[in-house]
Prior knowledge:
- It is built from 5 helices and 10 strands, in the order αβββαββββαβαββα.
- By secondary structure, the chain is α+β, with helices and mostly antiparallel strands.
- The relative contact order is 0.26.
Amino acid sequence: MHFTNRPVELIEEGYDIAIRMGILKDSSLIARRLCDRREYVVGSQSYFRQAPRPHTLSELSQHRCLIGSRPNWLFEVNGQRREVRVEGCWTSNSGPALLDAARKGLGLAQLPDYYVAPYLTSGELVAVLEPFQHHDTAVWAVYPRHRHLSPKIRQLVDYLVTNIDSLLPNSAPT
């Protein structure tokens, strides 16, 4: 097992399977959707006491953004996918670290529902820019196209499809 936020080249690097988040690039890999995922732009109550809540994507440039593995945040504008390059002085490739920084009021973060759900429910975090939320950022199992899928990979994918909700830290807010 190898954990990284870097998209690995399965065939070239010798991996049997990868779990990928978000929108997949076209490839020769087989992809199986494990579950839906929604990403929220969130900030803490303490952050919003210092800065106004953004209502447009252009207002992100006026905010401290906490940057994760991607320098671009994904949105949907008039039914079209739009990536917005954000800038900030704090970067981490760890979702839990970004969540902690957002909770401490260091800035805005774009994080998936399974990280932020309980904090949105409690009011500790506030979601902004929800009209621009992209709705197709699923969790995927991807694996090379072979004539015969190995039994261990087939069993793992079937297990993940059946049990993914219990494996994620939280469920999406309702």
